UniProtKB/TrEMBL annotation:
Gene3D superfamilies: Cyclin-dependent kinase, regulatory subunit. Forms a homohexamer that can probably bind six kinase subunits. Interacts with cdk-1. Pfam families: CKS (PF01111). This is Cyclin-dependent kinases regulatory subunit. GO terms for molecular function: cyclin-dependent protein serine/threonine kinase regulator activity; kinase activity. Binds to the catalytic subunit of the cyclin dependent kinases and is essential for their biological function. Residues 79-94 have a biased composition (Basic and acidic residues). Keywords: Cell cycle, Cell division, Kinase, Transferase.
Length: 104
């Protein structure tokens, strides 16, 4: 059944996180809780396979079969990218979460 799981390409934000979306088949999507985030042990039991460090960070209500993950990038990598772009950000700006539940 794990062959039916689709993993999106990874992408990064300016705050130092890497993201990935995992699309589950209907039979697995029914097992995903809609009222809380899953710890690593639970999403691994569903057959989701990723390297260490990923966290289930948000529930996207319109499409509960898509599990949203993120992980913190290494500080050195983030700092190098900001320096290369001539920017060193220290301010955090919250994103609008329209239709999304962020439990952090």
């Amino acid at each position: 059944m794990s062959r039916e799981i689709y993993y999106s390409e990874k992408y990064e934000d300016e705050e130092g996180y890497e993201y990935r979306h995992v699309h589950l088949p209907k039979q697995l999507a029914r097992l995903v809780p809609t009222d809380r985030l899953m710890p690593e042990e639970e999403w691994r039991r569903l057959g989701i396979q990723q390297s260490r460090g990923w966290e289930h960070y948000m529930i996207f209500e319109p499409e509960p079969h898509i599990v949203l993950f993120r992980r913190k990038l290494r500080n050195e990598k983030v700092n190098e990218e900001h320096k290369a772009n001539g920017e060193m950000k220290h301010e955090r700006v919250p994103a609008d979460g329209g239709g999304q539940k962020n439990y952090n």
